[in-house]
Amino acid sequence: MNLLMTGANGFIGKALTARLLGQAAAPRALGRLGRLTLVDLNFDGPETPLVRRLPGSISDPSLLARAFDTPVDVVFHLASVPGGTAEQHYELGREVNLDATLELLEKARAQSLSCGKAPVFVFASSIAALGSPLPAAVDDSTPPQPKLTYGAHKLIGEILAADFDRRGWIDARCVRLPGIVARPPQRTGQMSAFLSDIIRELAEGRPYVCPVAAGSTTWLMSVHGIVDNLLHAASMAAQQRGDARVWTLPALRSSMTELVAAIAAVHGSDRLGLVSYVSNAALEANFGRYPPLSTPAADAAGFRHDGDLPTLVRRALLPIT
What we know:
Layout (H helix, E strand, L loop, with lengths): L1 E5 L4 H12 L12 E6 L10 E5 L5 H7 L6 E4 L5 H6 L1 H26 L4 E7 L22 H18 L4 E7 L1 E3 L12 H10 L4 E3 L6 E6 H13 L2 H4 L4 E3 L3 E4 H12 L7 E3 L3 H7 L8 H5 L8 H8 L5
Parallel strand pairs: 1-2, 1-4, 2-3, 4-5, 5-6, 6-10, 7-9, 8-12
Antiparallel strand pairs: 9-11
């Protein structure tokens, strides 16, 4: 199998790459790995057999042409300009989130038309497509109403992918990712970074001032869970997929109080005394008022959450292998 991954040097991309390479010598649902082409602005770490790195912007059509110089079986489209950065830098957000996504789809279309191979196209969308404020409960019938530019970009990407699928040019699998923990401490424009910070800081025994109220609720998944679900999206059979092309992933709903209690259960009860709360109204409006979530379509298709909050806390800081 020849795989292509954009945003490969990011948090999720590194985790997904590590999982793919860890399984490269053994049969798995995706089949044996032939070549893994990674695209990102730059890369760190050593070169790895079976991997081709293409440094540069996915907004460069010539770079994407190189990425498709050998027919691709699966595309993992992870690259994006995230929420806070897309709000502050509209042109950059449009260039990466919209223009480059369309160009990537066009390259997949060209492959399909030239050799008859329509690649599986796994698009990392976001719950930001649903918008805020959310209704009293969210399920598969909840209409997307994005309120951030990033969420609008993701919704447009879903629509484009579904249309290219309708025409037979790709096999689209769009998954809306919830809050992902625990991201590394480097700032990348993620407005929800505090959800990772609180786990990391309390696990290390350091005091933490939480920027949303104790009763604020959110939807969470560990990076291990995200990798599991991305791989499932790429490999699931047609009967599992059915007619769906977009799934809101199942996630654990947690208040900050419940999350802190889970951290304390895993790392020690003294962590309960290390957290204080100072509410940021904007953060709370976007990331602290998540209602109950029901995802029957994703459940039926085989997508899964982490199980419970203590398991999520344990998995959040484990390395991907």
